[in-house]
Amino acid sequence: MRTALVTGSLIVTGLLPGQGTAPLPELLADTGGGSQLITAVAPAPGSTTGRVTWWEKWAGRWYEKGSTDARFGAKGLTEGATRVQGTETTPAGLFALPYAFGIRPAPGGTDYPYRRVTEGSWWCQDNASASYNRWVEPLPADCAPGESEHLAAYGTQYAHALVIAFNYDQPVRGRGAGIFLHVNGKGATAGCVSVPVGAMRAILRWADPARLPHIAIGTAAGPGSAPGPLDITRY
C-alpha cells in the first residue's frame, strides 16, 4: 500500500493500559496456534501511529523479543471483516504471515520464505481480475496497471516486507488487497502497518516459519475504559 507525515508512538512496554504486567498475547482470544506473534496496537480507531511488538512463547508463557514505533493507515483502523478497499484504513484482526518479500536481499539469518522483487513484480488489486490480491509476474492482461502496485516502484517501503494474509485465502472483491508489514515511508500508510527499516530487518531475522507467526492488529482500551469494537484482545 502506498504511503501518504505523521509521527507518534504508543505504549513502550507493548501492554494494554491498566492490564498490569501480563504479556499482551496472554490477553488475546487467539494467537494463531503458533509460538511467535506480532502485535500491532493503536491507541484508538482513528490513530495513525502506535506500537509493533514481537513475542515468543516458551514453556507456556509469552516473552517480548522486540518493540518499535509503528504507523497505520491514514484513516486509522477498521474491522477487517467489513473493510472497504480504498478507504486508507488498516484492517483489525488476527492474520497469518504467508511469506516475506523485498527489493533488497533478505537480511542475514532470515529463515522465512523470501521473494525478491523484480521489475516485473506487481500486486494485483483489480477487483475484476482472476489474480485479485496476489503477487503477479508479469502483470496479466486482466489486471489493470492503474489498479495494481508495481512493487519495484516503492524502493523504501518494499525494501523488506511481510505479506499480511488479510482477505487472502478466499479474497472478497472490494474488501482490499496488498496489506503488508513493511518499512516506513514518509508518513501514514494507505492501509498497511509500517515500521523503521532496522525493526523490519530484525523481525525478518527473528521470524521462524516453523513457529507459525501471526500478526494481531487492534486498538488498546484506555485506563478504566471498556474495550472498544477493535480492541486487540478480541483477536
Characterise the protein shown here:
It is a single chain. This protein has 235 residues and is mainly β. It is built from one helix and 14 strands; from the N terminus they run E-E-E-E-E-E-E-E-E-E-E-E-E-H-E. It has one helix spanning 197-206; strands at residues 36-42, 49-58, 61-71, 77-79, 90-96, 100-102, 114-116, 122-124, 134-136, 148-150, 161-163, 180-183, 193-195, 214-219. The strands form three sheets. It has a six-stranded mixed β-sheet with strand order 3-2-1-14-5-4, covered by helices on one side. A five-stranded mixed β-sheet has the order 7-6-11-12-13. Strand 1 and strand 2 form a beta hairpin. The protein is globular, with a radius of gyration of 17 Å. The protein starts with 35 loop residues before the first strand and ends in a 16-residue tail after the last strand. Residues 1-19 have low confidence and may be disordered.
